[in-house]
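ok posting inputs for the iron/sulfur cluster job
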Amino acid sequence: MEGTAAKPVFYLLTLLCLSVMAWQLYRRAVHWLKGKPIGWKPDPWGSVIRYVLGQKKVQGSRPQSGAPMHLAIFYGFLSLFLATTLLAIATYAPVVGLRNFHEGTYYLVYETTFDLLGLLFVLGVAWALGRRSLHDVQVSRGIAHRVITSDWRDYATLGILLMLGLTGYGLEAARIANQPQTWDTVSVVGFWLAGFMPPVSDSAYVVTWWFHYAWFFAFVVFLPQMRIRHSLIAIVSAAGSPERPLGHLERVTVEEVEATERVGVALAEHYSRWHLLSLDACMSCGRCTEVCPAHGAGKVLNPKQVVADIAGANRSGALVAETVSEEALWACTTCNACVEACPVLIRHVDLIVDVRRNLVAEGRFSGTGATMLRQLGSTGHAWGVQGGREDWMQGLGVPLCREGAQFEYLFWVGCAGATDPAAVRTTKAVARLLQKAGVSFACLGNEEACTGDPARRAGDEFLFQGQAEANASVFERYGVRKVVTACPHCLNTLLNEYGEFGATLEVEHHTQLLARLVQEGALAPAQGAIGGTTFHDPCYLARVNGVSDPPRAIFGEATSMDGSDAALLRAMAAEPGARSPFLEPEHRGRKTLCCGAGGARMWMEEEPNQRPADRRVDELLATTAQEIAVACPFCRIMLDASLKQKAGDEIRLVDLAEKLEEANT
Ligand code: SF4
Ligand code: SF4
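and the output
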């Protein structure tokens, strides 16, 4: 394009298109800035490297979710962006007195590398286009349920991207046909295409050049209107994301309530700026909805729709609870499957619990869930049991803190563990195993009170804070540092949320401590049932706190179950004897399927035909196992009800501690 008027026109058009794009993004940013300032210190570089460049979330997705296609498009696009940037730097280097380095061996390597990497982009986009079209055809013929939503803009986006890639190669081929050079063979694809072209005149080359850049201008101008805007917004969203554990909810302070005269979120602008920005990063991929147990059980909750509705409420100024619907908000089990699955780091659970907080404060929470909150407030026990936290200890000789016992571990029993008959069996088994292995432990007995987990997740933030402060002062009185518990919900709250209340604790699940005792030879390993045992990973253990190996290691086998088959296969390759002791269900490890108890759902009314536990039990029974092992008292209660309906007493439901005790008596 040297020596023509095209250059200034090109620069002018580029500036114009970038300005149009910036203006549209600014219009969106106005809505993000309505939110409150963020209350955390982000790790921008670390997050961008992990989640944008490393595509950590997409890499961990199931291939069926389109992850390989997305990775091809992303890394292909990234390489084209890098190639263009290097070319621009080399071209303008002489302006600041530097040498144009686009020559010699570097140039040959550059050409071959980026020419081939560009194929990734073109193939990825073609794959996306084919996948979307095929899905739409299948849905229209009634042979598939809609998983991918589409409108004309999605096809337009993919069309523009495909044309951008194809015309890029066409331009390269035209340049080779126009001005052949001896080194052109290094541009593998371009050289191959040029072989099909007749000689290209200078004017034909100019037309090809403008044709390619017309697609580039279209891409820049329309980007903020299309789903692909996530490619920009997700970078900013990742840079500002909170580096807190999945199981941690942000604290509401009394000062904040006094200043705003409100608890939680009524209007979208009450969220943080980051939460509002993250809504715009949503690409409507539907991964969150695909994994949502409430949606899967037929409830109205649809996390993808929740995100879209809150974004809409932010633009319109409508109340969030009315836009999303209270029914949907109360259906969430806070299982975090959606948060785990979301490639752009949207924290659906924060969004939902913040509105619940407002509903509870406004007195708009009723039924059995509200009864639980009243019971918890008056008795310190989620089922309203007065005292009775020491009944299970009778005859076991369990040491109590108040009696001056010296201990390494506080055995935190939990409301269910102390009083629910089935959970009490687990509690007793844990206590006897700890005694047998010579572990120094003690219990709080009637000085223990609910951690406040169900209150916090139901939205009663200050009831939770009261429980946390009271329990933290008891921990301080007895110098508690290490805690072991058989309840993943207690584990999560004590580990991830009590730090803000002065209790910095090392908290372990019973399967973690017991697996270590097996490993050290203090206990014999558990044995699977004849006919096979399957295992239900609890959400708050495997996904929220990343503990999925220890429940398997109790059987004395080396395993690696971070939720992906790939991890298990890697572990098996590294250690040929390694395998899971269970007949594994489809959803396991971090990708486990919720039983429906979390988020205080355990205490809320449930339509008999919409129980998440029914779906989970079906999946567990499909393994053909004769026994279902659990590691959470809440899961046990939920699965037990469904299992009785489906299989009567034929299939045994048992906690891993009981399994281990059987092998040690
Ligand atoms: S936390 Fe679980 S139940 Fe709630 S929206 Fe997400 S996937 Fe659905
Ligand atoms: S919230 Fe995340 S997972 Fe859900 S549709 Fe949007 S981008 Fe996909």
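notes: The CA atoms of residues 44 and 239 lie 4 Å apart. The pocket of iron/sulfur cluster (ligand 1) is lined by residues 291-294, 301, 303, 332-338, 348-349 (CB under 6 Å).
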